[in-house]
Amino acid sequence: FATGPRQNNSIFYEIRAYDIKPSKMKEFVEIVNKYFHLRTAHSELVGFWSAELGAMNKVVHVWKYDSFAHRTAVRHALANDKDWQGKFLASALPMIEKQHNEVAYLVPWCQLGKPPKEGGVYEWVTFQMKPGGPTLWGEAFQAAINAHINTGYTKLIGVFHTEYGLLNTVHVIWWNESPDHRAAGRHSAHEDARVVAAVRDSVRFLESQQNMLLIPLQCSPLK
């Protein structure tokens, strides 16, 4: 499980999270929607969201790279892109209070998904697992994810395992039609014996978890 497709495939994802000054959140989103085409001209954006619940004045975006050399070339090109530097960064950087990034791979048993339609909400769940990597907790974690998928109330978008950043971290992205639809589905899942059993097995390897409800920005490919 720990030495299969993930290491053989050079594709990885950079997860970037920015805390925005509260008074500048609306203006930041407007600038992103207006000028972010300058950034996506250089590499593939998977999704761009703002936090609605679980965090405030935070945005999260995910980028796909073919290799680390690819990322280096993109960063070099951005540093020399006068439009990007002048039209976006010059205005946006003063609005950002904090930046954080991680490098992650999709787990071998997951392909990046898409929502069945536009207009829903995304739940971003972060699990901090015990040291040891997927070899220790991978099968139990996969079983817990599949148990939730099988309930049918939610759509799995992706499961990412960190390579740089806080290790043994797993990020899971779910899509739901609405916050109320998610709440009703969660209620049903908690009464499903199969889900309860799978989660109980997986939680043996869990250190902590947290989540956010995210709303896609206009520029986000995942809407």
Automatic annotation (TrEMBL):
<dbReference type="InterPro" id="IPR012577">
    <property type="entry name" value="NIPSNAP"/>
</dbReference>
<dbReference type="GO" id="GO:0005739">
    <property type="term" value="C:mitochondrion"/>
</dbReference>
<dbReference type="InterPro" id="IPR051557">
    <property type="entry name" value="NipSnap_domain"/>
</dbReference>
<feature type="domain" description="NIPSNAP">
    <location>
        <begin position="13"/>
        <end position="111"/>
    </location>
</feature>
<dbReference type="Pfam" id="PF07978">
    <property type="entry name" value="NIPSNAP"/>
</dbReference>
<protein>
    <submittedName>
        <fullName>NPS3A protein</fullName>
    </submittedName>
</protein>
<feature type="domain" description="NIPSNAP">
    <location>
        <begin position="122"/>
        <end position="221"/>
    </location>
</feature>
<dbReference type="InterPro" id="IPR011008">
    <property type="entry name" value="Dimeric_a/b-barrel"/>
</dbReference>
<dbReference type="GO" id="GO:0000423">
    <property type="term" value="P:mitophagy"/>
</dbReference>
<comment type="similarity">
    <text>Belongs to the NipSnap family.</text>
</comment>
